[in-house]
Amino acid sequence: EERVARARLAEVTAEDVVRVAKAWLTEDRAVAIRRPGEPELPTMTAPPLEALPLRTGARSVLHDQVMALGADPMVPQELTAGVDYSRSDTPAGPLYVAKNPYDDLFRLTLRWYTGSERDPLLCDALALWIRSGAGDLDRTAFEATLYSLAADVDVRCGQRHVDVVLTGPGSALAELLPLVEERLRAPVVDPADAKKQLADRVARRQEDRSTLNWSAGALRAFALHGEESPWLGGAPTDEQVLSLEFADLAARTAPLLSTRRTSLYTGPQGEFDVTRLLARPDVLYQDPPEQPPIAYQSPQKPRLLLLHHDSAQANVQLVIPDVPWSEEEYALRALWNEYVGGSAGLVFQEIREARGLAYSAWASYGSGWRLGDQNLVSAGVGTQPDKAADVAGLLLELLRDLPQDPDRWGRAKTSTVEKLRSQRIAFNAVAGTAEAWRLKGHTADPREDRLRSLRAPSLHDVAEWAQRFESVPFTLAVVGDVDRMDLDALGALARIERVELDAISR
């Protein structure tokens, strides 16, 4: 089917494209225009809403009928090294190989554990790199070569990792990989095109900076990291982005070729073939700089960070840093997560469904990315500014004095077990999942052990475990129209610290 599709695609001419465009891209369209300034919005008075009783144990007739049908319990999936995937150490770094059982397509991710935390301009530079040529090929010629191979190259850049992702037919890897390596070694960028790209990135960031989501993200990062926030020192200024030297692009990308990385491969080739392609015998690979564990700042006393944003909606977030990640207490964390933050969990039901106080409401116990990285309890609510104080107070009440509902508990425990039992890791995610387990200290699939650990805890056990949040100083991060908020009620929850967007975000 793929060969037929390629053959049909090859027959498409430029005239065909123009003909179809004229037929379909007509005047019958919608145009959205975004303008800065004050909108004229109609005013509405919301009717008072009282809390509605939630029948957490109620079941519909349809539910009873479906459950009466019965079903064989799903056998949990277990991924085994040497069977479902292999992991080997090469001079270039660890290599994971998983089989594609369906076709001859491959996916290769080259992952370096470095990122914008170490080099604030790295992600902006890689945004230029993905639109560059390589060596003697300009951008157009490079992309034409990719097209001829039916292949694609993408890049993802974060605070602590860079992924270069190659995809295509398995037979193209031997030709594609040297092209990508040459692109890293000697990227070719057209200065005029690069200036336009950088100007566009800055313009998009300036647009984003005016949104509520940007302000909420910046305030959350400041609550967790203070002056070390990645939205501050870890983020380049607009001037730095615009002054990025195109000639220095290779100085950022070429060193990756001699830096140890983690390679995640899914496709038709075997481990030996992939190893031969990836590890260059003439290269002396260096270890990347060590990354310290992720840690959050903890306030000495409860505090409330308040940021004004002139919008109809307010954002309220609660964050409580917890202990570093380890597999210990996994069951208690997982059950608390589902009971409090699940799709029909405590926060969603009590704040949004029962009281109508929110557009959205969620809670989560976030596990550290790696062994030793700090865990984080967080919750967030989108609401109206005049309800921000009520929402913040209710969030604190729910998370710090856990209500115990046996019906909700029964549903949460069943859901937690069944999600883990029925979880299926697709073939193209096996390699990345095995690496994620390794980062958390696992040498094998941990799900069977986790299932066993979920059997014992009771609601009383989880509530007792959650008492740790009662005495830990918290941070509330509130963004919205301050003039419409009850500041006295907010101040009764914690000491208010007013902040300005320019002071917490570049």
Give the % helix: 25-40%
The residue-averaged pLDDT reads 92
In whole angstroms, how far apart are the ends?
A: 50 Å
Question: Main beta sheet: strand number and arrangement?
Answer: 6 strands, mixed
Determine the strand fraction and express it as a percent band.
15-25%
Globular, elongated, flat, extended or rod-shaped: what is the shape? Answer: globular
Total beta-strand segments = 14
Q: Using only CA atoms, what is the Rg?
A: 26 Å
Helical segment count: 20
Strand order of the largest sheet: 1-2-8-3-6-5
State the secondary-structure class.
alpha+beta
Low-confidence sequence ranges: none
Describe the structure.
Helices cover about 40% and strands about 20% of the residues. A 6-stranded mixed sheet has the order 1-2-8-3-6-5, with helices on both faces. The protein has a 6-stranded mixed sheet with strand order 11-12-10-13-9-14, with helices on both faces. Strands 4-7 form a two-stranded antiparallel sheet. It contains 20 helices and 14 strands. The chain is of the alpha+beta class. The two termini are about 50 Å apart. The longest helix has 19 residues, at about 190-210. It is globular, with a radius of gyration of 26 Å. It has helices at about 1-10, 15-25, 60-70, 120-130, 140-150, 175-185, 190-210, 210-225, 240, 250-255, 270-280, 330-340, 345-355, 390-400, 405-420, 430-440, 445-455, 460-465, 485-495, 500-505; strands spanning about 85-90, 95-100, 105-110, 135, 150-155, 160-170, 185-190, 260-265, 305-310, 315-325, 360-365, 375-385, 475-480, 495-500.
